[in-house]
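Q: Structure for this?
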Amino acid sequence: MEAFTLHPVGWVRKAAEATWIEVLPAYARALRGLEDFSHILVLFWFHANDHPEGRAVLEVHPRKDPRNPLTGVFATHSPLRPNLIGLTRCRVLAVTAGRIDIATIDALADTPVLDIKCYIPAPLAEGEVRLPAWVGEPAPP
Amino acid sequence: MEAFTLHPVGWVRKAAEATWIEVLPAYARALRGLEDFSHILVLFWFHANDHPEGRAVLEVHPRKDPRNPLTGVFATHSPLRPNLIGLTRCRVLAVTAGRIDIATIDALADTPVLDIKCYIPAPLAEGEVRLPAWVGEPAPP
């Protein structure tokens, strides 16, 4: 079966007063110009679920709430999925050699980072977006 | 070195009158409920660049325009990057067994699909977003 091999380009780090992405020295040049963006998209590996059982889950109750309907993982952001890629947006505080300080991140400390992309808004008109009831109200801007 | 193995969950397919994601039968259940979303995020593999040279590129001129400043790939959406993950948003037309018909996709035919996530808008206030000049005007909503 076709397979692709990924290596971490860095890790999520958390301390009492700081949250940052440590980028491996070999990839530090890939940060050039990132300081001009207010936000980044971080793609990471749900390493805590990297076992056959975690990757075999195809349906979940979203947000682990049994009142939410059983839903396929591709219709959720569940951390259980065949390829354990997480995606989140972070606000950039500072970019220094091999390090991106961020406001906060929806990922565990020491999570392997797979990729970083600049965040460029591409909003949709409100009427264009359709969501199921379990999503609830969109987050405030 | 730490490594993660990914397998395609499907492929981008294009024909004269249709564009769709073919999902492997083994993962078809993971689409349950996806029809309630107007849009999806598709994570895919830039398979045309899957060679050591493609994965070694750390800096590019965005949009292949030499007038744009040399920029680290993590500050771009370049298809050349250490882990060849592409990310795009698609409008869902229909979801049937193992198939998602979409309006269009910014990926080549037969591109391996790594993951699919529901799209939930999380807009930022305009004043919060900072972008370099090369990005230009944001796309219209």
